[in-house]
């Protein structure tokens, strides 16, 4: 009897211990840096950064480093919440993380999560970046550098030559650029295109175009979009926002939009099925188009000037989270990837436009052509305007506010709201989002 | 209950209270405490993964808690008062309840009907029974993505079929009721078979002789179903309803993946198919990162589920009461 009891007790204890151990194991984890063995550096990205060949080169010259990239091809909307969770949890983020311009402001508000690159000799690199790109990476007091710039988003207009030919429009890129010096001209061309019933819309959807016009108008006038430089919400008082809204309403009103929600399944299908003829095209978009439209559309796309003048949309930074176990090695790799050489390599692979003035002058960029886009001289088209780009300041809740305003544009596009109601929604919802 | 069944004379202890042996002490310890040890694993796990998060979430909901911020000032019930006056929250509650009703009612009826079919003498009965469970073993994400494509506005198969019968294309994602219906279809496709198997298991526990005597009395098949099967299935139906309530009100993957593209978490430009869990995610994570507000939504969802479950049980008890009366007649 006694032995039986004891055995039973032992069994119970065993079960309980196993359960406890099992629980504990979940919280455990094993990130111990190997003292002398090779180390692994994880790089978290979204979309296409074009670093594969650079990694290979770096690993060849640094045999103790192994580089793993995560998140390639993912949507920024999926990536940014994950990054925030990793930072909040103090665990899970890569040794290098990519941060998009529009979200950088939010991360800058809590700089304690990132290594101050100024403490690691980054100050010497200032000349490697366009001034405004360098300054965007600094916190408000200028004492901490969160991220080193990767690319910028100089703008162009990508278009389908075959659909233009079908509509009786010129197909040569210079001739096409001459068609639309302003957005009103662009709309006129759209109306001509529409009259020919090619079975395709003139443009993909209103929200991308809206954001393009906004960043352009803001860059050329106030220098800020939804927030002024003192971080006051100015959705309803900044003329650039209203101007972009009204231009977009004209586009919608003329029935030029294919109404595909950007980055949705339908949008991707529409690329494949040649359902629209033009799309506002920041430099990084060329890689997206190639990926979505697929190899069969090679040579059917081309790149012309953007209507209006200049503008910058997007571009990213590389930062090193404090939680990284290999900060020194990560900083070194980040410096390599954002060097002029690294930026040229990325541009050649996937098209993101360098933020380094040296790279922008490099023949490798200036003379480069993109075979997918009918050998368009992408280096010339994008790099030319890049150095004179006027950046747009972004406030603390830029992303949330932008979401609300673009959704209001979308409701008008889908016919759920008229333009006046849409504007009221945009202003009210933006205010609500900013207050959250 | 102190009935002395032992006929032997009571044993007089030889010595007064001998020192209990080690074995006896262990034995007493065993009978008194080991039951607690047996149930301990559940309570430990429940404590770690159930109670603790519940309380912590409540604690967070009383603060202005920026996910990345350093300071989390205490704000009392501010998040809750703000939430009560938040039209987007109530909009998401209506969406959730709408989808719940549209999906659960036909789902349980269809499951009941399927179970009844499967309970008959069929050829290859086991294969049929296995087959109804197949949708359930498919990954939710895969189901949602495929259905989202089927319900596409321009390239979707459903609209293509509708076009053939002369119905205009429906923008499934930008029409509130259409979006609810589309999402309910996914839920039903996945869960009807599962519920059918649960009902089937319960049906098999109903004694055959009830049906035999009913047949002898001349009751038709449908009469047997409504007068014997359904009343005797009542406990199982209650179970299925409560499980569906919890699942239905926490619906996330289907509506989230039904919407693709930028800020899909809003569930459409005018939040047509945004459920409460999606609204919670939108606030706690991107783009707002307001963890306190998100936690308040989580607690409201908890309350909502409790209320809806209670209503369901009350309703079913009513129904059941009626059935029992009929039974005893």
TrEMBL record, chain A:
Annotated signal sequence range: 1-24
Keyword Signal part of the UniProt annotation: yes
Chain segments carrying region Disordered: 416-436
InterPro entries the UniProt entry points to: Bact_solute-bd_prot1, SBP
Domain of life assignment: Bacteria
Alphabetized SUPFAM superfamilies for the sequence: Periplasmic binding protein-like II
Membrane-spanning parts: none
Keywords for this protein: Signal
Protein name stated in the entry: ABC transporter substrate-binding protein
TrEMBL record, chain B:
ABC transmembrane type-1 domain segment(s): 93-312
Keywords from the named record: Cell membrane, Membrane, Transmembrane, Transmembrane helix, Transport
Mode of membrane association: Multi-pass membrane protein
PROSITE patterns associated with the record: ABC_TM1
GO biological process: transmembrane transport
Family membership: Belongs to the binding-protein-dependent transport system permease family.
Protein name: ABC transporter permease
Annotated source species: Micromonospora globispora
């Amino acid at each position: 009897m006694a032995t039986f009891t004891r055995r039973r007790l032992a069994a119970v204890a065993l079960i309980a211990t196993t359960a406890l151990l099992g629980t504990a194991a979940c919280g455990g984890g094993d990130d111990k840096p190997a003292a002398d063995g090779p180390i692994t550096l994880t790089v978290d990205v979204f979309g296409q950064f074009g670093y594969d060949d650079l990694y290979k080169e770096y690993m060849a010259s640094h045999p103790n480093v192994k580089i793993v990239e995560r998140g390639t091809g993912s949507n920024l909307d999926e990536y940014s919440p994950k990054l925030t969770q990793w930072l909040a949890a103090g665990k899970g983020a890569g040794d290098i993380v990519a941060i998009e311009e529009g979200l950088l402001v939010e991360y800058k508000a809590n700089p304690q999560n990132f290594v101050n690159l100024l403490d690691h000799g980054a100050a010497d690199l200032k000349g490697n970046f366009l001034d405004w790109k360098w300054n965007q990476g600094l916190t408000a007091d200028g004492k901490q550098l969160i991220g080193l710039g990767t690319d910028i988003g100089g703008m162009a207009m990508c278009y389908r030559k075959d659909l233009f030919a079908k509509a009786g429009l010129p197909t040569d890129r210079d001739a096409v650029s001459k068609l639309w010096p302003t957005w009103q001209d662009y709309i006129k061309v759209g109306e001509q295109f529409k009259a020919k019933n090619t079975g395709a819309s003139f443009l993909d959807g209103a929200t991308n175009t809206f954001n393009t016009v906004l960043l352009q108008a803001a860059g050329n006038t106030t220098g800020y979009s939804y927030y002024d430089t003192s971080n006051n919400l100015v959705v309803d008082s900044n003329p650039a926002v209203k101007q972009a809204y009204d231009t977009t309403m004209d586009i919608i009103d003329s029935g030029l939009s294919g109404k595909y929600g950007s980055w949705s399944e339908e949008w991707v299908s529409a690329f494949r099925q040649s359902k629209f003829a033009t799309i506002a095209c920041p430099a990084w978009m060329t890689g997206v188009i190639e990926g979505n439209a697929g190899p069969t559309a090679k040579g059917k796309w081309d790149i012309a000037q953007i209507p209006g003048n200049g503008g910058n949309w997007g571009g990213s930074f590389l930062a090193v989270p404090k939680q990284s176990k290999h900060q020194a090695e990560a900083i070194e790799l980040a410096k390599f990837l954002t060097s002029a050489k690294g930026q040229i390599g990325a541009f050649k692979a996937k098209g993101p436009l360098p933020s380094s003035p040296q790279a922008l002058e490099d023949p490798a960029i200036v003379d480069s052509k993109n075979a997918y886009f009918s050998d368009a001289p992408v280096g010339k088209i994008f790099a030319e305007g890049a150095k004179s780009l006027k950046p747009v300041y972004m406030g603390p809740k830029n992303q949330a506010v932008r979401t609300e305003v673009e959704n209001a544009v979308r409701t008008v596009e889908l016919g759920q709201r008229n333009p006046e109601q849409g504007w009221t929604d945009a202003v009210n919802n933006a205010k609500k989002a900013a207050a959250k | 209950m102190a009935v002395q069944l032992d006929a032997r004379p009571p044993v007089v202890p030889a010595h007064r209270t001998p020192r209990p042996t080690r074995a006896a002490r262990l034995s007493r310890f065993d009978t008194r405490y080991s039951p607690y040890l047996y149930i301990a694993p559940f309570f430990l796990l429940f404590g770690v993964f159930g109670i603790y998060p519940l309380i912590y979430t409540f604690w967070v909901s009383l603060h202005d808690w920026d996910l990345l911020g350093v300071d989390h000032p205490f704000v009392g019930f501010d998040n809750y008062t703000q939430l009560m006056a938040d039209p987007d929250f109530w909009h998401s509650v209506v969406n959730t309840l709408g989808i719940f009703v549209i999906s659960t009612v036909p789902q349980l009826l269809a499951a009941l009907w399927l179970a009844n079919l499967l309970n008959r003498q069929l050829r290859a009965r086991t294969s049929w029974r296995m087959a109804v469970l197949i949708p359930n073993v498919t990954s939710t994400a895969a189901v949602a993505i495929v259905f989202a494509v089927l319900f596409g506005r321009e390239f979707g198969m459903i609209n293509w079929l509708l076009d053939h019968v002369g119905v205009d294309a429906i923008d499934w994602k930008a029409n509130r009721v259409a979006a609810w219906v589309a999402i309910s279809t996914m839920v039903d496709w996945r869960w009807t078979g599962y519920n059918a198997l649960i009902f089937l298991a319960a049906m098999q526990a109903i004694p055959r002789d009830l049906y035999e005597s009913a047949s002898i009395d001349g009751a038709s098949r449908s009469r047997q179903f409504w007068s014997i099967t359904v009343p005797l299935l009542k406990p199982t139906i209650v179970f299925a309803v409560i499980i569906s309530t919890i699942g239905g009100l926490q619906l996330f993957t289907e509506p989230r993946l039904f919407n693709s593209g930028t800020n899909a978490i809003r569930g459409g430009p005018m939040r047509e198919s945004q459920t409460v869990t999606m609204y919670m995610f939108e606030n706690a994570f991107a783009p707002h990162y307001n963890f306190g507000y998100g936690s308040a939504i989580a607690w409201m969802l908890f309350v909502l589920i409790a209320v809806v479950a209670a209503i369901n049980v009350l309703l079913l008890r009513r129904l059941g009461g009626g059935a029992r009366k009929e039974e005893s007649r």
